[in-house]
Amino acid sequence: MNRAKNKRRLLISVILPAAVFLLAAASAQRILMPKYMGSVIEGNFTEEYYRDKTSHDLLIIGNCESYENISPMELWRKFGITSFIRGNSNQLMSQSYYILMDTLERETPKAVLLNVQAMEVTGQDTEEYNRMVFDGMPWGQYKWEGIKASMMEDEHMIEYIFPILRYHSRWSSLEKEDFIYSWQEKPLTSFQGYYLRADVRPAAEFPRERRRADYTFPEENYQYLDQIREVCEEHGISLILMKAPSLYPEWPEPYEEQIEDYAQEHGLLYYNFLELMEETGLDMATDTYDEGLHLNVYGAEKVARYLGAELQRELALPDHRKEPETASYYEERLEAYEDEKTCQAKEFQELGYISKFYVESEE
Amino acid sequence: MTFVSYQFAVFLPVAAALFYGCPKRWRMGLLFLISGLFLVLSGGMESLAVYGLSALAVWAAALGVEHFRGDRDRISSIFFWTAAAALLGLLAGFQYINFPGYTVQEFFWLTGRNYEWTPVQTAAPAAISFYTLTLLGYLTEVRWGSVPAEKNPVKLILFGGFFPQMAMGPIARYELLSETLFSGRGAGWEEILGSFQRILWGLFQKLVISERLAVIVNTVYSDYETFSGWYLVLAAAAFSFQLYTDFAGAMDIALGTAGIFGVRLEENFRQPFYSRSIAEFWRRWHMTLGAWFKDFVMYPILKTECFQRLGSWGKRCFGKKQGKKIPTAAALLIVWFLLGLWHGGKWTFIIGSGLYHAVLMSAALLTEPLQKKFYSVTRLNRDNPVWAVFQRVRTFVLVSIGFVFFRSDSLKMAVDLFRGMFSGDTGLFTEAGFEALGMSAADGSVLIVSLAVLWAVSAWKETHRDGDGRPEIRGCVCAALAFGILLFGCYGRGYDPSAFIYARF
Predict the structure, then answer these.
(1) Three-state secondary structure along A222-273?
(2) Phi, psi (rounded to 5 degrees) for A139
(3) Residue B501: per-residue pLDDT
(4) Between A25, A166, A172, which is nearest B483 by CB?
(5) Torsion of CA B186, B187, B188, B193, to 10 degrees
(6) Chain B residues with CB inside 8 Å of A169's CB?
(7) For the segment A102-136, what is each residue's pLDDT rounded down to a tens digit?
(8) What's the rounded Cα separation, in Å, for the pair B141 and B158?
(9) A173 vs chain B: nearest CA distance in angstroms?
(10) What tens digit of pLDDT does each residue of B320-373 get?
(11) Burial class (CB in 10 A: 0-12, 13-18, 19+), B230
């Protein structure tokens, strides 16, 4: 009798409150996690890869130069190439490697296109970028290892495991979207990982970067590049290197030489779009939305057209436009892509800016 | 590793699981190892080495003190004073190396000259101020014969270095702690639940209240020359609450942590802001430190021949009743000087948590006849609730004045702060004025609500015996506290709550 009573008391005093606490904490976590539905939508891109149930022949990885300079929708429209960009702001080489490994657990693309600008980057700028890379990724070996490899000094693994520990202070800045999308699926914000911008801001002069004594890429980045190449070789994937046509940060000659040497040594295709302006037809007076840092959709489509033709010529990537299931998915995304492009273009023409990207900063 | 680190959140449950998973006879040894590991993780191997050697020296000295006590008391005395000098010398070497420099700095300021001492940076071993007193207290008690010398060095090392109490106290007494510390009895689930609640309440005080108050205090004090009037008054009051919630919070975590292992530590706080006099305040604030100084410094001083003579002289000059207070008042000055010095080798500590209070208490002691007269003339009932509130507010104000010294970097800064309080109002009570405190309206609201919770809990504790909560209620309180801390606690990125104010002493 006493034992039963004791058990009941234990249940009421410990187990029940603990269960209530866990439920409340889990609910709070869902609400407090950033939804990235405002002016910064890039935080959704990692997660959106896992929502795409189609397979991809081309995987594009790298930092912002990868997700803002190539349009996968144009690759589809013109060449029937299925692709996804797994890029994030300031995505480090280590992160690109672990993202590739994570992708290989789900599918094996025929080609991997790696934007090499991150080869010069030594460490993460802000913790927020790391969170954008990993928050949307389901837990697994490569998420764990990727976090460990790129975690900043003041970051803690436990804050990735229980994101409420990181985002708890958002309680005072919650918005309507935080509640709506806690339980409801968010609309897709990217187009196969591509960040669409239809505004135009012509290229400007950038400050000259200070000369360095040594332009050699960090050894660690070479190691990850080697690992990416090796794993591609193991899986029979063609690795292609590219430097996007972003005018800043600078891409000095020593960088170019190192990548050219590496590509030559390992027999890799390498495209430096800074040197292919004429071939792609890029005009930095009309094809960039932020003065030459990144391309707008018109520029990204030009790059995609050039790249698609090259990939089909060099690697014979198949045209999937005749496959009904794939075509149906891509046509639907293409329609949304065109709508978004038209909508942004119209707004830009009327206002001179696109409100969803500027409204918060103006406030 | 501190009490408010992620590491501790993992360390404690693992340690508790190991403790309850091993046979009772091994539990003391396990606590010894756990405490050692905690010290290494908190202060590094150097801290472990310094503490281990200090405790071993005290263990050996205490055996010597006991062995030679009585017939060969001189040798016993040599053992005692050698060990005591070594302990105090070590403390002085690490903690007071800058004291002469700061003294010169303050002297120059008092004489109207400018000199700024550049402090010598020393990496003091973790918790040295606290375990020095703990070990010294034990040694003194052995010398007096009030406790037997511990034969087992492991027990003595564990006594001074038991991990929940080592870093910030409470300052342990051997007789009281040894009973539960060495038994390995552990605790039942209801006690563990109560202890867990206590830990959460400590975390709530530290992370939800103290860290928010720190925003106000740090904003104002880091730029005190540009703030004036009510800002400085508010910062002074906020610091009193910050210090209380920081330290009392740490104590709740310490007592709760020890409670999980079935070890009872002494209470260190008892609603100090309910005090109606300074003397009462110090009987409720950092109680174990006050008791230590009373037992091991104050009483021995009063027993010295010099003070006996002072008492006789006082009685001759001021009558029996008033005269016997003279040596007490004089002893108070010495004790509180040392008590202030214990906090650190700065005159701001010596005054702010020492001499200033000694002066107030001595004044209260010596003016007792006047006070009695006041009550008889005014016919004021001492238990009148309005009068009680007045006395509590008065005590709070007086204590906060002391804490202004305590928080200041120098006496000049303290004086500037007091001057600033009376030099105009920069518009605190406006929206822009509030924003200047560096706190958002949302955080301000949380602070007000959590201070109201603190007040309610203090009021409840003042009228209820602690520990009589039903487990069902405790469980709900734990869930609510944990959720409150999780959501409103100041931790993670952008905060540095790891440093408890008293952890540096």
Answers:
(1) HHHHHHHHHHHHHCCCEEEEEECCCCCCCCCHHHHHHHHHHHHHHCCEEEEH
(2) -70, 140
(3) 66
(4) A25
(5) -140
(6) 490, 492, 494
(7) 999 999 999 999 999 999 998 888 889 999 999 99
(8) 17
(9) 9
(10) 877 888 888 888 899 999 999 888 888 999 999 899 999 998 888 888 888 888
(11) middle
Chain B residues whose CB is inside 8 A of the A18 CB are 475, 479
* pLDDT for residue B469: 72
Rounded CA separation B181/B177 (Å): 6
- Is the pLDDT at A362 greater than 50, yes or no? no
Judged against a pLDDT cut of 50, whether residue A363 lies above it is answered with no
Are B242 and B207 in contact by the 8 Å Cβ rule? The answer is no
Which residues of chain B have a CB within 8 Å of the CB of A165? 6, 486, 491-492
**Is the Cα dihedral A52, A58, A60, A66 positive or negative?**
negative
Residue B440 contacts A where some CB pair is shorter than 8 Å: yes
Domain covering A38-136+189-362 in this structure, CATH number = 3.40.50.1110
Joined tokens for residue B200: 């959460």
Q: Which residue has the tokens 């309180």?
A: B477
Contacts of B6 in chain A (CB under 8 A): 156, 158, 165
ipTM of the prediction: 0.84
Domains of chain B by residue range: 1-185, 187-269+387-505, 284-379
- Report the residue of chain A nearest B491, measured CA to CA: A165
pLDDT at B21 (0 to 100): 93
Is the pLDDT score of A221 beyond 80? yes
Query: Is a pLDDT exceeding 90 seen at residue B503?
Result: no
Beta bridge partners of residue A242, listed in sequence order = A115, A271
- A99 vs A95: CA distance, rounded Å: 6
| Cis previous bond, B148, omega within 30 | no
- Between B474, B476, B492, which is nearest A168 by CB? B492
Residues on chain A touching B474 (C-beta within 8 angstroms): 13
SS3 of residue A84 by DSSP: strand
pLDDT of residue B499: 65
Residue A83 β-bridge partners: A58
For residue A154, give how far its alpha carbon lies from the nearest alpha carbon of chain B (Å): 7
Higher-confidence position of B97 and B469? B97
Q: State the nearest Cα–Cα gap between B233 and chain A, in angstroms.
A: 28
Which residue does chain A place closest to B5, by CA atoms?
A156
Distance CA B348, CA B353 (A): 8
Angle at B489 between CA B201 and CA A150, to 5 degrees: 130
Does the beta-carbon distance from B483 to A164 stay under 8 Å?
no
Each residue's pLDDT tens digit, B81-102: 999 999 999 888 888 888 888 8
Per-residue pLDDT, A359: 59
Q: Residue ranges per domain, chain A?
A: 38-136+189-362
Helices B211-221, B230-260: crossing angle, 10 deg rounding: 140
Please check the confidence at residue B493 and state whether its pLDDT lies above 90: no
Distance (Å) from the C-alpha of residue A31 to the closest C-alpha of chain B?
Answer: 12
Instruction: Determine the distance in angstroms separating the CA of B29 from the nearest CA of chain A, rounded to an integer.
Output: 29
Give me the torsion for CA of B268, B274, B278, B280, rounded to 10°.
Answer: -60
Q: What is the DSSP string of B293-333?
A: HIIIIIHHHHHSHHHHHHHHHHHHHHHHHHHTHHHHHHHHH
Mutate to test the interface with A, among B215, B447, B493, B498 (most CBs of A within 10 A): B493
Q: In this structure, what token pair is assigned to residue B56?
A: 């071993």
Of B442, B489, B493, the CB nearest to A166: B493
At B177, give phi and psi (nearest 5°): -80, -35
